[in-house]
Specification:
The protein is α+β, with helices and mostly antiparallel strands. Helices cover about 25% and strands about 25% of the residues. The protein is built from 5 helices and 10 strands; from the N terminus they run ααββββαβββαββαβ. A 5-stranded mixed β-sheet has the order 7-6-10-8-9, with helices on one face. It has a 3-stranded antiparallel β-sheet with strand order 2-1-5, covered by helices on one side. A two-stranded antiparallel sheet has the order 3-4. β1 and β2 form a beta hairpin. The chain is elongated. The protein starts with a helix and ends with a strand. About 20% of the residues are buried.
Length: about 210
């Protein structure tokens, strides 16, 4: 009995010692709790992220599993929940939406505790137009660059002017045009022009 008890704790201790000495990726994988959360998604009680159409929300009402659920924001900017009915979500922060839902639930539940998290950000997009295989709008994920966007759109068409690509970006001071010369970039010149895209950017490939 004593031997089995010792064996039970010696083996994991030995594994920990090997991991500490070697620092192997396998050890890191086995220690990891699971997939990393989307860095762009809002945290509970977030008062900075603005919810948009098509974002997927995880709504949790404490001790109310029938109301708690994962739900996408509709194209009209609203969501529907039991007891709550329709409620505006787009344009609000998760914190504001928590308060709105809790306010509507007070008619049915004493002191409702509501948490809203953004599970998936689909509202933040960029556009790519012109001489690419699949022009259109794409969801911004994992901080894409101009080159990433061109790859997502299937690459260039035969007559694309690769030296004259530009990004249109809106800001509080107006619209700016950021040049991207693919020919130079592919030859290792002016690497900084391969900028990270922001929501609302439009790439033009003439």
């Amino acid at each position: 009995m004593t031997m089995n008890t010792h064996t039970g704790w010696i083996r994991p201790l030995a594994m920990l010692l090997v991991c500490a000495l070697l620092g192997t990726p396998l050890c890191a994988q086995s220690a990891a709790p699971g997939p990393a959360a989307d860095a762009s998604a809002a945290k509970p009680h977030d008062d900075s992220f603005i919810i948009g159409n098509d974002d997927v929300l995880a709504i949790n009402v404490w001790k109310e599993p029938d109301i708690s659920r994962s739900i996408p924001v509709r194209s009209d900017g609203k969501i529907s929940l039991p007891l709550v009915g329709e409620v505006q979500a787009a344009g609000l922060t998760p914190l504001k939406l928590e308060k709105d839902i809790a306010g509507k639930l007070k008619n049915y539940i004493s002191e409702p505790e509501v948490t809203v998290m953004v599970q998936q950000v689909n509202s933040q997009k960029f556009n790519i137009l012109g001489q690419v295989v699949r022009p259109g709008s794409y969801v911004i994920a994992n901080s894409p660059t101009v080159l990433d966007a061109i790859a997502l759109a299937g690459g260039f068409r035969d007559f694309a002017k690769k030296k004259s690509i530009y990004v249109l970006r809106q800001s509080s001071t107006g619209e700016s045009r950021i040049l991207f010369n693919y020919k130079d970039f592919s030859q290792g010149k002016n690497m900084s022009q391969n900028i990270k895209l922001q929501p609302g950017d439009t790439i033009i490939v003439p």
